Amino acid sequence: MTTSTPHGGETYFSIDIEADGPIPGPYSMSSIGVAVAGRRNAEGAFEDLRNQDLGLHLQLKPISSDYIPEAAAVAGLDRDELIRDGLAPKDAMRTLVDWISEQAGNDRPVMAAYPLSYDWMWVYWYLMRYAGTSPFGHSSAIDIKTLFATKSNRMIRKVGKRSMPKKLLSKRPHTHHALDDAWEQADLLVNLLHWDPSI
């Protein structure tokens, strides 16, 4: 069951996951990084929260013996170490729910990702399966790629980070460490929210 508490504003959580395959269930989420990007109050004013360095990084035990070595290698995580030391998915998702709820306070949490479709699929599936609830409900999310496409009046298939003005991009490196990449996405999200393409 998803949460449906009324909220005053919205808090934006940039989320990146690493996985050892294309879909959850047959394959496993290896790690998740969450960075608090900012909040919008009930009147619509946006507050940048990146300077508070509020982030969470979790590494998870695999849920299946199936994995694609090339996918698992992207994040540089050792599968044997995850089996031994990773969090049980139930504990990880409970930690995630509690942490997001604490950071959001009375705001509605909003998940942001680039692209949203991939990371949302994993996060929502894991939340519902292992925590039984989602702090994002079933649809409280924003796709950073679509946000750029809309603001720049481009087709989705013509959107890539290389097609974006450099001033929108993060100065942080893309490392495939889930928390590093969540912070990189947070920079892009905040820059896009402030961006006026006509200027």
TrEMBL record:
<dbReference type="InterPro" id="IPR036397">
    <property type="entry name" value="RNaseH_sf"/>
</dbReference>
<protein>
    <submittedName>
        <fullName>Exonuclease</fullName>
    </submittedName>
</protein>
<keyword id="KW-0540">Nuclease</keyword>
<dbReference type="GO" id="GO:0004527">
    <property type="term" value="F:exonuclease activity"/>
</dbReference>
<dbReference type="GO" id="GO:0003676">
    <property type="term" value="F:nucleic acid binding"/>
</dbReference>
<keyword id="KW-0269">Exonuclease</keyword>
<keyword id="KW-0378">Hydrolase</keyword>
<dbReference type="InterPro" id="IPR012337">
    <property type="entry name" value="RNaseH-like_sf"/>
</dbReference>
